[in-house]
Amino acid sequence: MPTAAIRNADFDVAIVGAGPAGARTAAQLAARGRRVLILERDPEPGRPVHCTGIVSSECVERFALPRSLVLHEIDSFVLHSPKGASAQVKRPSAQAYVLDRVGLDKHLVRRAEEAGAQALAGAAVNEVTWTGGGVRVEGTLGGERLRVEARAAVIATGFGAPLARRLGLGQAREVLSGCQVVAEAEGLAQVEVYSGGAHGRGGFGWLVPYRPGYALAGVLTRSHAVRYMREHVRRLQGAARIGAVVETFRCRPVPLGVVGRSVADGVLGVGDVVNQVKPTTGGGIYYGLLGADAAAETLAEALERGCADSAALEPYEARWRGLMASEIRHGYQLRRLLEGLPDTGVEQMHRLLRLPGLQRAAASIGAPFDWHSGPLLRFMDRLQRYAEPAA
Ligand SMILES: Cc1cc2nc3c(=O)[nH]c(=O)nc-3n(C[C@H](O)[C@H](O)[C@H](O)COP(=O)(O)OP(=O)(O)OC[C@H]3O[C@@H](n4cnc5c(N)ncnc54)[C@H](O)[C@@H]3O)c2cc1C
Predict the structure, then answer these.
(1) Which of 20, 83, 202, 242 lies deepest, with the highest CB count within 10 Å?
(2) In this structure, are 93 and 182 located in the same domain?
(3) Is 204 part of a structural domain of the chain?
(4) Ligand 1: which residue has its CA nearest to atom 19?
(5) Does a structural domain hold residue 129?
């Protein structure tokens, strides 16, 4: 769509960012007959890639994600202790999937376009201003100035956007840092998780089957992610688990905790930008998609009533928080608990996990992939009782 046509067009909602959260919000609003424009800074949705693309079967079903996006089914995973002992956790059926993340982003943008939204790639937004009756969105498109009028805007820029800060949307006070590479790997059948201080405080490493002949290896940790990732890769290469690194993804921050505000006049934040992320694993795709539905519902109601000021958008706060804020809060507590464990404690947990009785308990607790803090806390309680039998 030419820039001049955009200037003269009248949009209901401008969506800033074409990640999963932005694209899903756009699709839901367009499906309700709203005129939606997606503005994406990068030339292509989903690139540059940073993410492993693991989502639960619940997420795949709820958002009807096509099988063609699935690279690998996960029905079991291997947990490695700091000293290198391993324990397998197995479920009777697929709990999660490794998705083609670039394909996922493209698919979600395509769905939004099919529903009637328009998408502009290479459009970087640097200002959103409330004008009283709507918003003015300003930025650049291919070196030219871009200015769009809409009745509201959705900020779906991922974590750390200065724009969100300027608009008064809540900011995470704590972050993790995630880094990942694609490496040659033959015959990798399961997801593997590596625990212990070698990945930094509360950090963990992973090895995940990717396209045939390749694996994703990465770390999520508090700080120095690049250093920990290099060491993780070196250890995996030393053990002949992976071969040469063929691609290094960019490192990205992962926000922790529950944010203060997610709405302002004419503006609403969705996805990573307002911490809709699991603090335990750093997974944010599913929560971002859930947040998107809550955002679209709220915006549709506000536009119906003809006003999108912060009071009209306020119901969004309760909607998305009702879905996930308690899980994020508990997940954060669980993370802090695990971060406080020395390697000897982690090693002891692994030893207990390898006991057949506790393996059965782990399987029977049946923690759903996305709502795991409650079951995990219960499991840790059982673990503690195993570890410290009553005197
Ligand atoms: C190493 C790593 C591995 C991960 N693995 C997983 C995983 O396996 N499963 C999972 O669920 N989550 C994972 N995550 C988290 C997941 O990637 C994020 O939670 C998810 O991408 C958030 O989606 P989003 O739509 O909010 O933001 P993003 O996906 O970050 O999309 C934001 C979009 O906004 C655009 N944008 C930014 N600023 C502007 C601007 N000013 N103007 C216009 N456009 C702009 C960006 O270019 C981008 O396309 C991982 C994260 C990391 C770091």
Answers:
(1) 20
(2) yes
(3) yes
(4) 284
(5) yes
pLDDT of residue 390: 46
Question: What's the confidence (pLDDT) of residue 365?
Answer: 53
The number of residues in the chain equals: 391
| Residue span of the structural domain in which 344 resides | 336-387
Answer yes or no: do 43 and 114 share one domain: yes
Q: pLDDT tens, 287-318?
A: 999 999 999 999 999 999 999 999 999 999 99
Q: Do 157 and 263 belong together in one domain?
A: yes
Number of domains present in the structure of the chain: 3
Report the CATH number that the domain containing residue 225 is assigned in CATH. 3.30.9.10
Tokens of 5: 């046509």
Do 26 and 120 fall within a single domain? yes
- Do residue 278 and residue 344 come from a single domain? no
Q: How far is the CA of 154 from the centre of ligand 1 (A)?
A: 15
